[in-house]
Amino acid sequence: MRYELYYWTGIQGRGEFVRLALEDAGADYVDVAREAGDQAIMPFLQGSEPGARPFAPPFLKAGRAVIAQTAAILFYLGPRLNLVPKSETARLYAHQLQLTLSDFVVEIHDTHHPIASRLYYEDQRRAAKERATDFRQYRIPKYLGYFEDILEHSNGKHPLTRHSYIDLSLFQVMSGLNYAFPNTMRRLRRKLPHLNALTERVASRPRLAAYLASPRRIPFNEEGIFRHYPELDAAR
Amino acid sequence: MRYELYYWTGIQGRGEFVRLALEDAGADYVDVAREAGDQAIMPFLQGSEPGARPFAPPFLKAGRAVIAQTAAILFYLGPRLNLVPKSETARLYAHQLQLTLSDFVVEIHDTHHPIASRLYYEDQRRAAKERATDFRQYRIPKYLGYFEDILEHSNGKHPLTRHSYIDLSLFQVMSGLNYAFPNTMRRLRRKLPHLNALTERVASRPRLAAYLASPRRIPFNEEGIFRHYPELDAAR
């Protein structure tokens, strides 16, 4: 099966969670818009392609199936790429963790866009500073504390009984937060030993390391979810 | 199977999407916190109960399984309550639509809490006004336009081939928006004939009508997701 991933070019965005799974599994896939341009996405959003109509990218074409929503794509790919244990209980648990990460990703995005996604960051800077302050003080510790705890009460290495797409998604969120909020993350470092170890372990998985060093990995930048605006991070 | 639903008392919140499915199907369930108080929720959040540890309510206990995240609970319940067609394609499509509604619900909530969930509305009123203006002008039309279109290109009555939990969730979102943004929704009315018809149809399903008229249905109020703050709605 050759999978087709559809996601906007130029940013990692939500598409990156799917890319990491495909890359880690060595799956056969095409990153369609990066070959054919963003306009390849439009017919699906307009409903002129057969199959389920997505509200937004990322979506995945797998044969005739079209699957949208990051967490649903990973739920679908998990067993097919051997990136989740096979039981329904484990699959639902992984899905719940991924959906919690999705909620976190919305909050991370909204630190720089608390008023409207449509507007520039520069036009919502004051609200962004307020939201980011609360986010650094309460939300990062709450979410990362939850996942640190999950790791501490599992086998210490993986949230599930073995490597899964949740490890990859946690790697992505940790990497993004390290990029966007370096001072805040440095302060939290000692409280997150399992998450930090997981992040390093994932980065050194052979296929992932090769991907991260390749031009297929788009660098973090100030167009995506994880943006480094020093005024939104803590002082040193 | 007697299901146990865990959700904070006093608000409809995200728990309501699960309640509507259980009520519409005539399922055997207990709304645990409404019988035993909110403290019944805590041991699960603290990880001292066996099973998957939820990040937040709602979560469902089904035998020994604990399933968290509204959309995942509905994904699990759908086939068991005969509230979704049985094929994997249909189940994933329903799930994608529910996840899109979940994204919408976050945006609806954040109109009155654009800075921090932790703080009072009164302390983030200025940002709320800005966010709500953008929300009314761009986000309501975008989301509801998408679902109206889905209905227009399906059989006109249901987003899937037959009645499903997505009909119930759309009913809930439409009812909530009608409560919170009555002027805005009145203006949009002519553009949403299928959604309005669906909302009325769902409200008159016998089990749902009985539920909505019962004390089990908590009224909309200014503690929940859908809040009526006149200054956040459009002028008449």
From TrEMBL, chains A, B:
Lineage: superkingdom: Bacteria
Coiled-coil intervals: none
PROSITE patterns assigned: GST_CTER
Domain GST C-terminal per the UniProt entry, residue ranges: 91-232
Pfam families the UniProt entry points to: GST_C_3 (PF14497)
InterPro entries: Glutathione-S-Trfase_C-like, Glutathione-S-Trfase_C_sf, GST_C, GST_superfamily, Thioredoxin-like_sf
Name assigned to this protein: Glutathione S-transferase
